[in-house]
Write a structure and sequence with these properties.
Length: 563
């Protein structure tokens, strides 16, 4: 009982330190993290007509949740859940009877470069998969041991991960690797894999029906490959769970000349702990190692000879574009590294206590718990203020209400998907209009990385971009509305020719195209019906799991794993 309270306290303290700026009002907007006050639910969030389903079913889930919870609170719930569940899950998963090593595991998994860099690039839904992985591993172990309520708990651990394609695939592969066993029911294994596949059905079905196709620009392989963060190179950065492609989202401490040396220290301690992990959980340790090694190789694929194969795949294999940003696949590696580091520290502390005294062993464990913080001090306090909330200008509500009165497609200008705004502290953020406006929005889905532009997949956006690049008026795109986001480069006068100004605010302008249809053409009913059915099926899986747990009253996944 006391140990559980301490672990909850540690998880809460880590969460409070990392997310301290969220005590202020407003929204944390960074790159892909775009929460809005009330996100409308529309077909583009369920079955995108021209884009790959990168945010399916994430956007639909957020929109449904917004019916009960305002956006600012929903964002805080999601971010708190990431850090809190990551810390607590790693601590619960660690196979030990001692409390101190669990604290080490909590810090080693919840205070990592991977979490920091993905938080700073705004990929909160991917980080939900990161936070849920320890709980998923626990639930798989419970299911193999036939503990009551194990299957519902497994599904509830996999469901948040499946908010994005990458997280959903990670959950499915984890279950497929960890669950099968000679002495375990094949029928239960097949049922479990089928249920986790249904959780992935929303984005799978949406991808099959999208006009975007499944291939990607091979230029993205080099641009999204793992990068060196200091003198030691990309592979050492990956070994420390860093190496994200976007240098603007790398904490300054990762550039330190000492960072690789501390990373090597962490690796050495972790290697010493891996035999202990294998001895204490022999039924799953080897499989966890397979997941970790596989994830690391995927993360490193874009940095070496594998880049050629990866370029071929993204052009010829539908869906292979998911593999371009490989560093995100370090999630299983990060978990194994945290577990190995905690057990290695426990082993070293035991040796020290036997040869010196017990207090020396305790000091060593305390140092091990603090080492992730020493290695990455600038994750504290919202990455030293980088996660500071801001407020949306009032223009956004005015424009959203006007578009809702006369629905129709919106062309968002300037035709850049990511820009800086003075009202958002000059942080790069994704265009909020697809989530703020209750209408289909044409925005530029190409991504500029330095001097290189990686082409997007939306054919409608590509056609609009080509027309605008040729100097043609925006009215020729055929959208009902043209939204101009001010303060980041105003479009030329000829671009707005033929449009009627409806609203002229300090931060936004809304122009109407008089010759455009009031409502954009609807997508095929069959495609939408299939996508909606996939969403409903996934929701029923989650609902059934919740009901089953309530009926069983099982709480076994809260119990620490012992050896």
């Amino acid at each position: 009982m006391r140990g559980g309270i301490v672990l909850h306290g540690v998880a809460g303290a880590v969460t409070a330190v990392v997310l301290a700026p969220l005590a202020l009002p407003g929204y944390v907007l960074r790159y892909d993290m775009t929460f809005v006050p009330r996100q409308p639910l529309n077909w583009e969030m369920i079955a995108p007509a021209g884009a790959l389903p990168r945010a399916v079913p994430m956007d639909a889930v957020v929109s449904v949740a917004n019916l009960a919870v305002p956006g600012w609170l929903l964002q805080r719930i999601a971010l708190v859940a990431i850090v809190y569940l990551a810390a607590l899950g790693a601590a619960r998963l660690l196979p030990t009877d001692r409390l101190s090593p669990r604290v080490v595991a909590a810090l080693a998994y919840a205070w990592t470069p991977l979490l920091a860099e993905r938080l700073l690039i705004g990929q909160w839904a991917l980080l939900l998969a990161y936070a849920c992985l320890p709980w998923l591993v626990i639930a798989v172990g419970d299911l193999r041991e036939s503990r009551p309520g194990a299957l519902p708990r497994l599904l509830l651990a996999a469901a948040p991960a499946a908010l994005t394609p990458t997280g959903g695939l990670l959950a499915l592969v984890t279950v497929a690797v960890l669950l099968p066993a000679r002495n375990f029911s094949r029928r239960v294994t097949a049922l479990t894999l089928a249920a986790v596949t249904v959780l992935n059905a929303p984005w799978l079905v949406a991808a099959l029906g999208s006009a975007a196709g499944g291939t990607s620009d091979p230029e993205g392989v080099a641009q999204f490959a793992a990068r060196a963060e200091n003198w030691a190179g990309a592979w050492v950065a990956l070994a420390g769970t860093g190496g994200i492609w976007n240098a603007q989202t790398v904490p300054a401490s990762r550039e330190s000349v000492l960072a690789p040396l501390v990373t090597l220290l962490v690796l050495a301690v972790a290697v010493a702990g891996l035999p202990v992990l294998r001895r204490r959980i022999p039924e799953s340790a080897g499989r966890l190692f397979v997941l970790a090694v596989g994830g690391f190789l995927l993360a490193a694929a874009g940095t070496g000879p594998g880049a050629v194969l990866l370029e071929w795949m993204v052009v010829h294999v539908p869906g292979a574009g998911l593999l371009r940003d490989g560093q995100k696949f370090l999630i299983p590696y990060a978990l194994v590294l945290a577990l190995g580091f905690a057990l290695g520290a426990e082993r070293a502390a035991g040796w020290t206590a036997r040869r010196l005294d017990r207090s020396a062993g305790r000091v060593l464990l305390a140092g091990a718990a603090l080492l992730p913080v020493i290695l990455l001090p600038d994750l504290a306090f919202g990455a030293m203020g980088q996660l500071r909330p801001v407020r949306y200008p009032a223009d956004w509500d005015v424009v959203a209400a006007r578009v809702a009165e006369t629905p129709g497609e919106v062309l968002s200008l300037p035709f850049e998907g990511y820009q800086r705004y003075a009202w958002a502290n000059n942080v790069v953020i994704r265009d909020p209009s697809p989530r703020y406006l209750d209408a289909p929005v044409i925005m530029n889905d190409a991504l500029r990385v330095g001097a290189v532009t990686v082409d997007g997949e939306n054919p409608r956006a590509a056609a609009a971009g080509a027309l605008l690049a040729a100097g043609r008026p925006a009215a020729e795109v055929g959208s009902r509305w043209v939204l101009v986001r001010r303060g980041s480069g105003e479009p030329a006068a000829n671009v707005l020719a033929g449009l009627r100004l409806i609203y002229d605010g300090e931060d936004l302008q809304l122009w109407e195209n008089p010759v455009a249809p009031a409502v954009s053409p609807a997508a095929g009913d069959n495609r939408r019906a299939l996508a909606l059915g996939a969403h409903i099926s996934a929701a029923l899986i989650v609902f059934g799991a919740v009901v089953a747990l309530l009926l069983l009253g099982s709480r076994s996944w809260y119990r620490p794993r012992t050896h």
